[in-house]
Amino acid sequence: MKSTAILKSKGLTTDVLKSISFELQSKEITTVIGPSGAGKSSLLLLLNRLEEPQEGRIFYKGTDIQEFPVTKLRREIGMVFQSAYLFDGTTEENIEYGPKLCGEWEPGETKRLLELVELPQSYITREVSTLSGGEQQRVALARTLANKPSVLLLDEATSALDIKTVEHIEALLFKLKEERGLTIMMVTHNLRQAERMGNQTIFIKDGQLIEKGNTEKLFKNPQTETLKMFLEE
Amino acid sequence: MQGTTEISNLSLLFIIVFVMIPVSLSYWFSLNLSKSVLWSSLRGVVQLFAIGYVLTFLFDLPSWQGIGLWVAVMIIVATLNAARKGKGIPYVRVVVFAVIALIEALIISLWLGFGYIPFTAEKVIPISGMIIGNSMIAIGLALERLQSQFKEERGRILAALSLGANPKQSSHQIIRKTLKAAMIPNIDGLKTIGLVQLPGMMTGLILGGVSPLDAVRYQIVISLSIFVSVAVCAMLVTIFLYRFYFNDKMQLLDLHT
Q1: Residue numbers in B near A144 (CB within 8 A)
Q2: pTM, entire model
């Protein structure tokens, strides 16, 4: 089945990024790799409209994102950060946060989401401050998924977690892609993870998009000397 | 005032001798504070005498001129002092000035309206000093807390915005914490008022020969007026200024760089 671009950027330029253009294919996982300070996180902030490009445009489902109401766009293009950044309160209060803002909360949804991120139902009333780092990150993921986004942006969301938790979250992301048709863009410094997870991969260095393409091809046969050197490091 | 004993220059000089006690202690324990103690004491004495002469001059002016001039000076100084804590926030001075001026006008109008004090410089200026001074401290605390909260909680605010919250919703917890931090010292102060130490104004009135019960009445009015000023100032400044941390696209600005 031919996939279609759900998110597209043209010449995105900020203090950090230099004319970045790419297309995010629907129902695929795109991994973003590159050295620290390359501008990977800045790129995600632009897509969630938490920052504004100095130049360039972003299209979501064929329409310039400037034409969407900001809050609606942010719910549709959800984001999970490197830290969970949970709010004071219980797991339930955190998960309900997004949908309650727009009055779209369905009773029982928290339980379904807890099940999805493989957390026990008893956690529903737990204060989030009592959860482990891995559990907090799963709550953060459930909180973003509660908004029913079409696109999920992950900014090094598994970098602070242990191997077992990372495996669980990776499996969950595959499931979300397959079962919910979610489009995922994940920034990671873990090259093995980028290779495991990605359908497409983007390599950014010094704010410039150096290479992009099919993940398998890109890792096996890098076209630029810069990417070759980066993969060998 | 009835019952007031005048302090002669000689007795005043004698009290300054007491300053030598902390100076000696500082020297004895090598605290390196002797110079600071002497300098602060001297500065305090000079400032108080200066203010004494200024007040005498103001009290001799027609009421509205003296009051207007000095209250304006107090509000400006308080604004500049408090607004320093909110460095980088757009319009911080304008908002702080407007809030202090508003609360001063409100409280003094009530005092005059209820006939607690007549419209004379001797009465209005000291009361205004208390209102403006306490408002300045509360605003400073609120701004300091607002700045540190926006810095520490940046990640959580971004997370809230990314979930579809607007600036008000994403700053909700910060606003609550800021207001609490600004009001708690005053609430605690009210709880122990009179038990731990007699408030300055009441002490002054009693020393000046006013009966303790009359002094208490004045103290109640001033304490509650200060409490209201502090609460309202912290609230208004926080509510007016938090929005400047965001732009019109609901994006969080970095005001700390």
Answers
A1: 162-163
A2: 0.84
